[in-house]
Amino acid sequence: MGRKLAAEFFGTFWLVFGGCGSAVLAAGFPQLGIGFVGVSFAFGLTVLTMAYAVGGISGGHFNPAVSLGLAIAGRFDWSELIPYWIVQVIGGLAAATFLYVIASGSPTFAAGGFASNGYGDLSPGHYGLVSALIIEITLTAGFLIVILGSTSKAAPVGFAPIAIGLALTLIHLISIPVTNTSVNPARSTAVAFFSTTGASSQLWLFWLAPLLGAAIGAIIWKWLLAPGESPALIGREPELAPTA
User: CB neighbours of 185 closer than 8 A, spacing ≥ 6?
Assistant: First the structure.
């Protein structure tokens, strides 16, 4: 169990440090900024690379919503859910702390939103609460379907991290203007408390919506797309099922 938790810590650390780091340090850099397209690919690459690195140890969740969805689908032991959530949040917070220390070394640094998520005035496109709720639920549900499908027995072996990393890239390309893209409560929690915009007051939505979306995606997969295909993982090695 210790190795699994360590893998989830490092995987979530890498996701937040790489994905949010690209937004804080590189997205708006004068003349050479990577923009939101670059940030989208950065998030996808964090999942793809760490899934290959440690996914075989822990299953490569790196996201409380994914852990919940996999448990609902019968791919993850419910008894391990809370420990996974704890280390995922701690890993994200550790990454955000490192990122804040690095970013604050610039004389022009201002925390601002610090890659946090939000709706209304805190949305990049000023989208309202309902828009944020719907898109986060929908995209997290789709993400779970991709994860469960690409790691199923019918899928080609060894390609799941690529499909899942590209899915997370697509999710960011769609939703950065709406919520700055969460689909991951650990990622949202990690940076919210370093923001100076009051993002922590909206953090509830970025736990509620991804968890609800993950549950919906898992139910769709288990009962509609692949009934009976997902036996419980108790006593088995975890399947590679990485996230964001």
Answer: 63, 64, 65, 89, 206, 207, 210, 211
Q: Which of 132, 117, 94 is nearest to 199 (CA)?
A: 117
Q: List pLDDT tens digits, range 161-211.
A: 999 999 999 999 999 999 999 999 999 999 999 999 999 999 999 999 999
Q: Say if residues 241 and 152 touch (Cβ distance below 8 Å).
A: no
Structural domains in the chain? 2-105+113-225 (1.20.1080.10)
217 close to 73: Cβ distance less than 8 angstroms: no
- 206-234 pLDDT per residue, tens: 999 999 999 999 999 988 887 555 444 43
- Number of Cβ atoms within 10 Å of the Cβ of 82: 10
Alpha carbons 161 and 211: distance in angstroms, whole number: 21
What b-and-e string marks burial along 133-171, b requiring 16 or more CB atoms within 10 Å of the CB? bebbbbbbbbbbbbbbbbbbeeeeeeebbbbbbbbbbbb
| pLDDT band with cut points at 50, 70 and 90 for residue 82 | very high
What is the C-alpha to C-alpha distance for residues 29 and 155, in angstroms, rounded to an integer? 40
Q: How far apart are CA 216 and CA 39, in angstroms?
A: 27
| Residue from 91, 207, 107 nearest 199 by CA | 207
Q: What is the pTM of this model?
A: 0.91
Task: Give CA–CA dist 155/141, Å, rounded.
Answer: 19
Helix (H, G, I), strand (E, B) or coil at 170: helix
